[in-house]
Design brief:
Layout: H1 2-23, E1 26-34, E2 39-40, H2 42-48, E3 55-67, E4 70-71, E5 76-82, E6 98-104, H3 109-123, E7 130-136, E8 138-142, E9 148-152, E10 156-161, E11 174-175, E12 184-196, E13 205-207, E14 210-219
Parallel strand pairs: 6-7
Antiparallel strand pairs: 1-3, 1-14, 2-11, 3-4, 3-5, 5-6, 8-9, 9-10, 10-12, 12-13, 12-14
């Protein structure tokens, strides 16, 4: 009797596992960078509050899967956001926010619509007001220790490396702000380049040498 009970439970667990796995229809890599440190101490964060960190670049690369029934495997999408306050500030809402989206030039019209809808869904309120969508060649590469390179034509660029001991300035650093979207295995990283040169957000920037990036994975 005990063996039969165990077998029945095992079957249920396997079925539940299969159902959960079946609900994951899309997965891939995620890179984010802001204009304020995300891995830092309170003293630096307070010094940047409402003076920096209102802008961010969010990038997704689909490794495998479909969005709303459209296969977008191997394609990327990049969103650039400018908010009203420092992103992640728990005392002040960063909204309203405006954004622009760059989709992979290799996508067909149906895939481009799916990528934009995916970015809006994953980005939530930060991508509720999209000013324009443009297509560019997107380079998206990740390494195993915090290294990433994302280039969306001439419009946006990110390059990160892993943190080093020299990046700890006060010894009290921690993940001060969480990632802007739901990701797994988020790892803070150091930016070598973080730039936006497009129109529409009333600002452009070219920053580097900050602890203001995250690398992770996503699945839905």
């Amino acid at each position: 009797m005990k063996k039969r009970t165990f077998s029945a439970v095992a079957v249920v667990v396997l079925l539940l596992g299969s159902a959960i796995a079946g609900n994951i229809s899309i997965s891939g890599d995620y890179v984010e960078a802001r204009t304020a440190d995300v891995y830092t101490g309170a003293c630096v964060a307070n010094g940047e509050m409402n003076l920096a960190g209102k802008e961010a670049i969010l990038a997704w690369r689909v490794r495998d899967g479909k969005w709303q029934g459209v296969d977008v495997s191997g394609l990327s999408v990049v969103a650039v956001v400018r908010a009203n306050a420092t992103l992640g500030d728990v005392f002040n809402s960063p909204l309203p926010a405006r954004s622009v989206i760059v989709v992979d030039r290799g996508a067909n019209p149906e895939q481009r619509d799916a990528l934009v809808n995916m970015a809006k869904d994953l980005g939530g309120d930060l991508l509720s007001d999209v000013l324009w969508v443009q297509a560019r060649d997107i380079q998206f590469e990740t390494g195993g220790h915090g290294e990433a390179t994302v280039k969306a034509g001439e419009l946006a660029a990110l390059e990160t490396r892993c943190m080093s001991q020299a990046d700890h300035l006060c010894g009290n650093e921690d993940v001060y702000y969480p990632p802007l979207t739901k990701v797994a295995g988020a790892m803070p990283a150091y930016t070598v380049e973080n730039s936006f040169k497009g129109d529409g957000l009333d600002t452009t920037w070219s920053l580097g040498h900050k602890r203001n990036a995250f690398i992770g994975t996503f699945a839905r």
